[in-house]
Fold this protein.
Amino acid sequence: MTNNCEINDRKVAIIGCGFVGAATAFALMQSGLFSEMVLLDADKERAEGEAMDISHGEAYARPMKIYAGTYDDIADAALVIITAGANQKPGETRLDLVQKNVGIFKTILPQLKQRNYRGILLVVANPVDILTYTAVKLSGLPENRVLGSGTVLDTARFRENLGNHLGVDSRSVHAFIIGEHGDSEIAVWSTANVAGVPIHKFCSMRGFHNHEEQMERIAREVKQSAYEIIRRKKATYFGIAMAVKRICEAIVRDEKSVLPVSNMMHGAYGISDITLSMPAVVGKNGVEIQVPVSLDGNEALALKESADILKKIAREIKAAEL
């Protein structure tokens, strides 16, 4: 089966209508970025129910066609967002999900390839880095048109935590989490700043001088955020939905925003043939170019170790032969 229909720039599709998919659909409905949204799920009635429920708020938002559909309905979508996958359970790491969710992706991606899908594929399901790698190998799309939500949410958590610590608007904090969206992620302190002022200098300005201790605490709290939320409410979905909306804004509006999305590495920092989260310019064609963030020696080493963890998992699931 092939499809050569023209891409509809105002159409989005979400595959997977669990907590993350539904929250993402709700956020995108309110955003006004799209005029048509298709929801797909293995449980068609759930997709229908979510479409009905969300569409009932249209009178208080913007006109939008929202409906449950099939793979044939999404062939002309500008953006396909995959949230489908098993949920992360209390005590379970994102990487523990890998076998189950790679199996799910092996049923989804051939459906898109059969229809010659030519839009942009945004992977959100976890473990997002491994699943983005799987999507690159199975989708038939150019690498730049396949990206993962990566550490966009982790970076937001990092900025919020720093903002709270320093008593400053988190939007004025410029800092990244890079590497795996998971336990080996790296907080990049060497280039972190507030309105151009290096983070340690700004901390001193605000009366904080025990930098090392606070750095360890903040990085640890960011890394543990998902586990703490899952322990309390069994799942995370609102934060990631906002992160996905932010990525969609950059794509639909061709903003050329620098976001730490999961994308393929080709030698930078000595890392190749794996997808992980690195800042990149994101626009209408997906990932335009990676941004070469300056890392100190420890950060560069930690990034290489994070990549090695992901590559080991990729080898274990034979992703290199996909």
In short: The two ends are 21 Å apart (CA to CA). Residues 211-233 form the longest helix (23 residues).
